[in-house]
Amino acid sequence: MICVASVSKYLLLSLQKFRNMKKLLATLFIFVAFFAKSQNFEYQVLFEGIGDNREYFSEKALPQTILGSRGAFEIGVEKEGHRFRGGLSQLLEFGSDIDYHKPKLTLYYQYSDKNKDFLFGAFPRRGRIDFPLAMLTDTLLYYRPNIEGLFGEIRWDWGHQNGFVDWVSRQTENKRENFTAGFSGEIFYKNLFFHNYVLMFHDAGPAIDIPGDHIKDYLGYAVQAGVKTNPGSPFSGYIKAGVLSSSFRERSVTNGFQTTTSFFAETKGKYKNIGIKSVLSSGAGHKFKSGDLFYRVKNYWRTDAIWYFINHERVSGTFNLSFHLIDWKDLDQQQQLSIIYIFGK
Fold this sequence. Notes:
The protein has helices at residues 2-37, 139-143; strands at residues 40-55, 64-79, 82-93, 104-112, 116-124, 146-156, 159-169, 177-189, 192-204, 216-228, 235-250, 258-271, 274-282, 299-311, 315-326, 330-344. By secondary structure, the chain is mostly beta strands.
C-alpha cells in the first residue's frame, strides 16, 4: 500500500510539473513571437570541416590526427544595434560516438555600432579572438569554439583595441577555477602598423585542497611592428617583427615570476590562391597555458605553404602544409584542411 501511494504521489507531481512546463513554454513562445515581431529577425548557420594530421616525431608536441565536422546555428533578434542570440554548436569527431563531445550552448547579448562592439554571454571565438599560436593554440577553435564571458572592442580611423574575459572553469569541490583574460590591438599609418597582445591565465585549485597543489599564474605579451603591401596589389602580404615574452609562477614554489623573452617575427604573402606564412621565435622557450607546445623550445621556426582552394562569398576552403623546425635540428610536419560554410541573415 505504501509503495502504491508513493508511486501515485510521484505520478501526480510529475503530471503537475509537466503542466507547469507546458504553460511556461507557451508563455515563452508567445513572448518571443511578440518581441520578434517588432525586431529584425536574424539567423546564422555554420558548417566546419576539420582535418588536422600532425606527424610529430620530435616529442615536443603531441602527434595526433583530428578529423571531424562541426555544425552550429544561431537565431535571434536585432534592433538599433542591440542584438540577442541563442543557439548550439556541436562537434562530431570522426571515430567517436555522437555524444562524445557535449553540445556547446551559444547565448549572448551584443551591442554594435560603427566604432565599438560589446558582447556578454557565450559567443563564437572565431573572427573575434586572433592571437599568435604561441599564446593561444588553434585547437581551441576545435574543442572550445565559444568564449564564455565578455568581449569589447573600440575602433578608430587609425586602429582598434579589444579585450576579453573567458571563464574557463567554475570552482567546485573537485573542479579547478580557471579564467583567461587578454587584450590585443593594432595601430597603423599608411602601410606601417604596430600590433600588441597581452594574455593572462589564472589557474586556482578546487575548493577541497589537494596536497602539494598551488595556484598558478601565466602572463605574457607580444609586440610587433611591420609593413604591409598596398591595397589592391595582386600580391598581398606583410612582414613584422618584435618580441614575445612570457612569465610563470607557482605560488609558494617558484621565487616569484619566471620570465623569458625571445625575438618574434612573422611574414605572410598571397598571390591568387597560393600563399606562404612563416613564423620565428628565437632566443627562449615560453610557457603559456593554452599556447602551442612547440614554442616551449628555445628556437622554433614554422613555415606554411597554403592553398586557398575554395574562395566563395559564403564558403572558404584552405589546405596547409606546415613544417616545424625545432632548435635547428628536428623537423616535424603537419597537414591541415579547413572548410567553413556560413549563411544567414
